[in-house]
Amino acid sequence: MNKKYIIAIDPGREKCGIAVLSIDNTVIFHKTVLKNDLFPCMDELQKKYTIAAVVIGSGTTSKNVLQLLQKKYQQISIAVIDEYRTTDAAKKRYWQENPPKGIKRLIPRGMLIPPVPVDDWAAVIIGEKYLKNLGIKGENDGKKTIKEAD
Fold it and tell me: What's a single GO MF annotation on this record (predicted)?
């Protein structure tokens, strides 16, 4: 039996966060892509993983992406998740996975700005919210994540 995964998306105007989580809530992949590269990236991920659902954040730019998802991936369940405060959670998660070094260690993490976009981490948070809503435990349980190289 194939292991099943979800794709989580944090849609934005210019770029989107995309993540793959296993049904047991392990983060497999996360990346920030240009909006035009979202569907080619999803197609590649669909070749590698058995996708059980696509989860998209409910932000202001999600409507257009949702309509395109519903047309292109009719055979896959698509869910919309409230993305309230996911960017804040994504920044916090970034620093958990990438602790500051040097003098930045002395600055409270809440005051630090990540040096890279955190759209991918927002997608991870959206995926974890979806799995938590399904009753699957393990949200941010200390497991390290694997980020695929560009």
Answer: nuclease activity
